Amino acid sequence: MKTQRCYAQRRVQVRRSKRLAAVTLSLTALLLLTGCWDIKNIQDMNYVTSIGFDYADNEYRVYVQMLDFISVAKVESGKPSQHVPVWVGTGKGATVIEAVNDLYQTSQVRVFYGQVSSIVVSERVMNKGLRDIQELQNRYYELRFTPWVFGTTMPIDKLFAVTPLFHLSPIISLLHQPMESYRQKSTITPITSREFITNYNEPDQVVLLPSIRATAERWKQDTSPHEVLDINGAFVYQDGQYQGWLSERKLIGLRWIDPKTSRSPLVVYRDGQPEAAVSLEAPKIQIRPIVKGNSAAYEVSVKLSGNISDIVRAIKETELEAEVAARVRNEIRETFVNGLQINSDLLQLQHTLYRTNNKEWKRLKREGNLKLMPDSLADIRVDVQLNNAGKLKYPAASR
C-alpha cells in the first residue's frame, strides 16, 4: 500500500511539473513574440517616394515627394477618373541633417523613407560636393541604395509636382521608372544610387548623372500644355569630381559604346535629306589601349545589329550598312571631343587602361602623360549588321 501511495504521489508531482512547464513555456513565448501592438495603419505615416537636395543662400534644402498610397491603390486597380494628389515638403538647415529635421517639425505624422525610389540632386549641390548627401544615405537605415539618381537645374519642388498623362499615379513616371522609356529609346543610361556610389571614386572612371527636367513643349491636355518629365543631358563626374553638364546632343555617341543600350534610332541623311531610318541594338564594344613610350592611344571596335525602320529612297543594303557605320563612327568621335572640352574621358579609355594594364597606367599617371588629346582616339571600327526591314520587304531593286 505504501508503495502504491508513493507511486500515486509521484504521478501527481509529474503532472504538476508538466503543467508548470507548459505555463512557463507559454509565458516565455508571449514575452518573445514581437506582436502587432505597435503596427501603424497605412494612413498614419507619410511615405516619401522621392527625395531632393539643393543648396541656396548658404543652407541646404531638402525636398520630399509624398503620395497618398490609398489613392494610388485606387488608381492602379482601375481606370483613373481624377488627378492623384502629390504632396511636396521642404526643410531647410545649415546641414543636410538639420534640413531633414526641419521637415519633421511640420510633417504631422511619422515620415517613412523605405519607399523612396528616386533621388534628385541640384547642380548647386554638385558644385558644393556630394559628401554630406552620401553621408546621410550611408548612415540612415531606411534609405536604400536601389533608388534611381538624377541631377537637375530646375527647382526641385516644381519637378516633384509634375504628374503623368491620363491622371496616372506619379509613380508611373520617368522619375520612378526610367527604364520603361530607356528600353524603347536608349540614349542616356539611368543609374541607381548603388551604381553611382560604386563608380564615383574609381580611378579615371566617368559617371554620368542623368539630367531631368519638366517640359511643356510636347504634350497637351485638350488645348492646354501639359508638363511632363524629360532627360535632356547628363552631369559628368570623373575621379569623384564634378566636371560639368553636357546636353543629350553632345552625348549622342555614348549609346553606341554602352552595352546596356537596348534600342536606339538613327536616321541616315544624304545631301541634307533623310535616306533611311534604322533601329540599332545590343552593341558589343572592345577598347584596346596601345602604350608607346610616354603616351597611350586607343582603338575602339563596335559591333551593332539592328532593323530597318524606314526607307525613303532605294539604296543597297550593303551601302546602307556602310553609311550607318560611318554615322555611328562620327557620333562616337564627336562625343569623345565634347568630353575633352570639359576634361572628361566619356569613352572610358583611361579607365580601360587602368583595368587592362595597371602597371603602364600607374607609370603614365605618375609621369603626367595620361592626358587625352584629340588624336588619342587612334581608330574607331564599326560593323553594322541589318537583319530585316520589319514587316516590309527590302526593295528588290536595291539589293
UniProtKB/TrEMBL annotation:
Main localization of the protein described in the UniProt heading: membrane
Q: How does it sit in the membrane?
A: Lipid-anchor
- What GO biological process terms are annotated to this protein in UniProt? spore germination
> Where is it localised?
Membrane
Tell me the ranges covered by the Spore germination GerAC-like C-terminal domain, including all copies: 232-390
Q: Which GO terms describe its cellular component?
A: membrane
Which superkingdom does the taxonomy of this entry point to? Bacteria
Spore germination protein N-terminal domain sequence ranges: 38-213
Q: Which UniProt keywords apply?
A: Germination, Lipoprotein, Membrane, Palmitate, Signal
Query: What residue ranges are annotated as transmembrane?
Result: none
Note the InterPro entries from the entry.
GerAC_N, Spore_GerAC-like, Spore_GerAC-like_C, Spore_GerAC_C_sf
Q: Which family does it belong to?
A: Belongs to the GerABKC lipoprotein family.
Q: What protein does this entry describe?
A: Uncharacterized protein
Source organism per entry reads Paenibacillus athensensis
